[in-house]
Amino acid sequence: MNVLIVHAHPEPRSLNGTLKDFAVRRLETAGHTVQVSDLHAMQWKTTLDADDSPHRPPGTRFDPALDSKQAFEAGNQPDDIAREQQKLLWADAVILQFPLWWFSMPAILKGWVERVFAYGFGYGVGEHSDARWGDRYGEGTLTGKRAMLVVTAGGWESHYGPRGINGPMDDVLFPIHHGILYYPGFDVLPPFVVHRTGKMDSARFEAVSEALGQRLDTLATTPPIAFRPQNAGAYEIPALTLRADVAPGQVGFAAHVETPAVT
Ligand code: FAD
């Protein structure tokens, strides 16, 4: 497989940096081809702003969505954005690797998403009409590719448990899993999460690396999270609420994941 690792940590000798290097070695040893977008090393421009649309007529108001659309369609996006889109098209699997900062991804990675998932590439794909809300949530430019988060967190596993004070980790990561990765079409694998990073020593690091290695070994075969596709009948059009007979009475993030039929 072709694997793209998008890595967001400012310190190469950090836990994240070391795990990223481990992942590259493990994947290459297994015969995969790996590219790494090391956002800090690349000095990635974080903010989506008017500098991303240099071809706008002078004096016009900057419109982040429409200017992104025009630049994407005209082929005059900034080179850094176009290069990352090419890497995504090249990849069979994409790993986003980052420390959990304020319950989400570091700003530099969010900025990568905002700039690279351009209008026409990450969103605004397919027919948009009264009868259809485009190709998204299970369909889109990145359909057929797999994505997985590798996340480190200072909090304990129990803090992110079903009744933990931080909220369940599946809920914390839902906006990334569903809103960022499933939206443009990825099959999203269960995340690899390292909790309680402040309690790391060489023995635990070995165990964590081996557990990550096993997830990388099964990157092509691990079943994805069973999010409900937008355009397969589970949602009312145009409200995009779940049909009354789908997960009746269930609300919140979990309602958008199919539960296996009880046999
Ligand atoms: P590092 O600090 O580099 O390392 C962590 C530990 O692992 C250290 O003890 C280090 O010595 C050890 N280590 C590193 N490499 C090795 C190795 N090769 N072998 C053995 N030991 C090793 N946490 C939450 O749970 N929720 C949040 O919302 C949250 N928000 C945060 C916001 C900010 C701005 C910051 C700075 C931290 C936040 N944290 C939060 C904590 C954060 O998630 C952790 O600090 C982070 O995940 C640790 O990853 P790191 O790569 O920076 O680890």
What does this structure look like?
α1 (15-29) packs across α6. The longest helix has 16 residues, at 202-217. This protein has a single domain, classed as Flavodoxin domain (Rossmann fold), CATH 3.40.50.360. The two termini are 35 Å apart. The strands form two sheets. Strands 1, 2, 3, 6, 7 and 8 form a six-stranded parallel sheet that branches. A two-stranded antiparallel sheet has the order 4-5. The chain is built from six helices and eight strands; from the N terminus they run βαβααβαβββαββα. With 263 residues, it is α/β, with parallel strands linked by helices. It has helices at residues 15-29, 64-74, 79-90, 107-116, 169-182, 202-217, and strands spanning 2-7, 33-38, 93-99, 128-129, 132-133, 146-152, 187-188, 192-194. 30% of the residues lie in helices and 13% in strands. The model has no long low-confidence stretch (mean pLDDT 96). The chain binds flavin-adenine dinucleotide. Flavin-adenine dinucleotide binds at residues 9, 14-16, 18, 99-103, 152-155, 197-198, 200-202, 205.
Topology, element by element:
Elements: E1 2-7, H1 15-29, E2 33-38, H2 64-74, H3 79-90, E3 93-99, H4 107-116, E4 128-129, E5 132-133, E6 146-152, H5 169-182, E7 187-188, E8 192-194, H6 202-217
Parallel strand pairs: 1-2, 1-3, 3-6, 6-7, 6-8
Antiparallel strand pairs: 4-5
The structure holds flavin-adenine dinucleotide (FAD).
Short description:
With 263 residues, the protein is α/β, with parallel strands linked by helices. It has 6 helices and 8 strands. The radius of gyration is 19 Å and the shape is globular.
